[in-house]
Amino acid sequence: MASEQFSAGDIQEGKMFAVLAYLSFCCIIPLILKKNNTFVLHHGKQALVLFVAQVALFILSVILPMWIVKPFVFITLIFAFWGMIQALRGLTVELPLAYSIAQRISL
What is the DSSP letter of 23? Predict the structure, then answer.
């Protein structure tokens, strides 16, 4: 998704909230405070999907050996970092799998 779909005001106003969204459980804050900003919602929903995945992986790490779970944890952290960088640049990113799940979330 190109950043042209978002107004320059939404991007400028929402950059820091979009970055905040990728900091694990902090994804809730931008979704509540900036729910009318489409740029923040785009990043916030994907960050929420990553957070849920991280919680699920934490639960799985109790059941499964860590060497099985660790690569998936690493992938979610890479995706979160990538999302942060793109948000700082004022761009959007369609994270694999997370984007398609995030599109189904309605707030």
Answer: S
Is the separation of the CB atoms in 33 and 17 below 8 Å? yes
Range of the structural domain that residue 53 is part of: 3-102
- Cβ-based neighbour number of residue 64 at 10 Å: 11
Question: How many C-alpha atoms does 52 have within 13 Å on its Cβ side?
Answer: 12
pLDDT averaged over consecutive 10-residue blocks of the chain (107 residues)? 70 94 93 93 95 95 92 95 96 92 90
Q: For the purposes of burial, counting CB atoms within 10 Å of the CB of 13, is it exposed (0-12), middle (13-18) or buried (19 or more)?
A: middle
| Number of domains the chain is built from | 1
Please tell me the pTM assigned to this model: 0.89
